[in-house]
Design a protein that fits this description.
Elements (H helix, E strand, L loop, with lengths): L16 E6 L9 E5 L7 E6 L2 E5 L4 E5 L5 E6 L7
Length: 83
């Protein structure tokens, strides 16, 4: 599926940030997957969502997925350097 997202975001360490993502071509029973991808490392799965919102454990925050699943947002409560 097509994914549209800013390549990076910045906030002072420990200050919450909302990261938005658009996936306009999502189809069928596809889930929304969020990953953390640090330089020189493999992507690390953070959370999977279908619709609605749910807590995220590591890093602490919350995932929201729209009812039509065409957009989502990951809120990080206390991002650390490198998140």
């Amino acid at each position: 599926a097509q994914v549209l997202q800013e390549p990076s975001a910045q906030t002072p360490e420990g200050t919450g940030i909302n990261i938005n993502c658009s996936h306009p071509s999502i189809q069928g029973d596809m889930n929304v997957q969020w990953y953390r991808h640090l330089p020189d490392q493999a992507p690390h799965h953070i959370v999977t969502g279908v619709t609605g919102d749910k807590p995220v454990r590591d890093p602490p925050g919350r995932l929201w997925v729209s009812a039509d699943r065409r957009s989502s947002a990951l809120w990080l409560a206390r991002p650390r350097r490198g998140d």
